[in-house]
Task: inverse folding
């Protein structure tokens, strides 16, 4: 084993490690180089956010168009204020659209779905959704049903 | 009875002493700044024997562990009709847990024991003391390259292990059992986070590499210079490394993924 072959083998070894790290980054964790897309922020006030979490999905007709930034409590109205960043290319959401919290599948994660309105004006950065629909709470539904309301 | 208590105390004291010696030894190795020109070929040689030669066992075990995860995951998940989540399960298990830990255990058995035996034999045949006679510092010439090689090689091996395992899981899940390939990768990408999962796994393997290499070179350097001493030192390397890795893994997991 000469020094040269050792050097080459170690070099290849380190390159293989680097390639594997790249694979884990791009293919496994889906870190894409163009992920720093331009986004804009809109807000929605919910009575009950259910189980949505920051970094959760915001979708429109089932297509992911953004993610949830933060969930804070508005101390004056006692509602939850959700900030979400929407991809820059989706810039024509009608201003009277509603933000609805839905669950994917029976036991899946919760996400925010934007149900489209009919207004000619569109939501601008920093705007708040006019209408929202809170998370459906199965427990509350059952207790309403049981107490006959 | 008194004798028994006394021997218990003695072994406790000698344990503390050996930890202290290992710490001083580590300080001695790290304080000698490696010379870039003369030290680099030595490091490369060790990287070759510690890293490149361990590659075969790492790749084969990674492949089989990935395949077993695929099979087991499919059997369990298909009961709930959610076998599409198999990619997510395999990737998270490998990247967070099995990649670093199993690599470290294999590394301790494959490379750590060899390091201990090599250094132990050098000590038994008085090569280390003759180096000191010639004015060459054995800590810098023999120990430091091996320690650094283990430290560098382990994360590389762990990353390769995870990659091969994920590929092996795909082989079973997608090619054999017929999970849709798009949902295999798609679920994986949606749930694996680069910083939280991949980087934390790499940090784990860096810690494990350091601990395994440290234990291996220390046991070799500190062994009783007889054939029985070398054999017991090699055994100790494997046992202590495995225990340290599993114990540290719990602590690191609690810190990284514990959410408190």
Result:
């Amino acid at each position: 084993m000469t020094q040269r072959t050792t050097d080459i083998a170690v070099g290849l070894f380190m390159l293989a490690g680097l390639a594997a790290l790249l694979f884990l980054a791009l293919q496994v964790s889906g870190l894409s180089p163009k992920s720093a897309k331009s986004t804009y922020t809109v807000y929605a006030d919910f009575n009950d956010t259910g189980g949505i979490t920051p970094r959760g999905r915001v979708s429109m007709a089932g297509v992911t168009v953004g993610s949830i930034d933060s969930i804070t409590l508005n101390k004056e109205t006692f509602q939850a204020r959700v900030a979400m960043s929407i991809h820059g290319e989706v810039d024509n959401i009608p201003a009277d659209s509603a933000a609805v919290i839905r669950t994917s599948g029976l036991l899946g994660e919760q996400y925010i779905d934007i149900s489209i309105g009919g207004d000619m004006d569109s939501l601008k950065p920093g705007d708040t959704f006019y209408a929202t629909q809170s998370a459906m709470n199965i427990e509350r539904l059952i207790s309403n049903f049981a107490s006959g309301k | 009875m008194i004798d028994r208590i006394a021997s218990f105390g003695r072994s406790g004291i000698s344990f503390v002493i050996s930890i202290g010696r290992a710490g001083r030894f580590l300080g001695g190795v790290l304080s000698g700044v490696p010379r870039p020109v003369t030290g680099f070929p030595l490091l490369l040689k060790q990287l070759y024997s510690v890293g490149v030669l361990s590659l075969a066992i790492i790749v084969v075990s990674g492949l089989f562990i990935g395949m077993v995860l695929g099979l087991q995951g499919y059997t369990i998940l298909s009961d709930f009709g959610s076998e599409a989540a198999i990619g997510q399960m395999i990737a998270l298990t490998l990247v967070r847990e099995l990649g670093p830990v199993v690599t470290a255990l294999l590394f301790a058995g494959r490379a750590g024991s060899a390091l201990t035996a090599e250094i132990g034999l050098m000590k038994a045949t008085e090569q280390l003391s003759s180096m000191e006679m010639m004015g060459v510092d054995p800590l810098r010439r023999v120990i430091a390259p091996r320690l650094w090689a283990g430290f560098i090689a382990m994360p590389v091996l762990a990353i390769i292990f995870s990659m091969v395992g994920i590929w092996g899981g795909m082989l079973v899940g997608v090619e054999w059992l017929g999970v849709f390939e798009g949902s295999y990768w798609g679920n994986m990408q949606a749930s694996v986070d680069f910083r939280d999962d991949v980087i934390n796994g790499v940090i784990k393997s860096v810690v494990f590499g350091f601990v395994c290499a440290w234990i291996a070179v220390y046991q070799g350097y500190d062994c009783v210079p007889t054939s029985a001493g070398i054999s017991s030192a090699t055994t100790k390397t494997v046992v202590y490394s495995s225990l340290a890795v599993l114990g540290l893994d719990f602590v690191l997991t609690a810190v990284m993924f514990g959410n408190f």
